[in-house]
User: Fold this.
Amino acid sequence: MFERFGDLPLHVLVIHLTVVLLPVAALTLIAFAVVPKWRRLLRWPALVLGVGTLVCAYVAKKSGEAFVNAVPTLAKAIQLHEKRADLLFWYCVIFAVVAVAAFLLFAGVRGDRATSSRPLELVTQAAVVVIAVLVIWQTVRTGDAGARAVWEGQLPPK
Assistant:
């Protein structure tokens, strides 16, 4: 199921979506959490993107495993990439949970605040910023390790 999309490896296609979606979702959730004026406008995009990162990360992880199973000679070259991708997946799990919590606390389904507790708001904002930055950072690190595994030594020297 996760091996191919048409004649192409699914992983090669889905990682491009993932590399774009994860940072966009992280920045959207940061804006949603720290700019109260934007919460009403960003509440649904923040929620959908927050949960979407988990879906994307899951498909990227499973399609990557299927890709390595189809081409076992890649296993050694992508060890670092795979290790970083595993950590990124868990960051995305936490990110999705924090996105749902922020949505419920800051905007709710009808756009009304669920909490008036300033300490809870600050803790949630801090959690959003921390996990969002970690998701962006780990996305870059994971993508870099994957690109180096594929392209190292194949490009002409500078």
Remarks:
- Helices lie at 10-34, 39-70, 79-106, 118-151.
- The chain has a mean pLDDT of 89.
- The two ends are 40 Å apart (CA to CA).
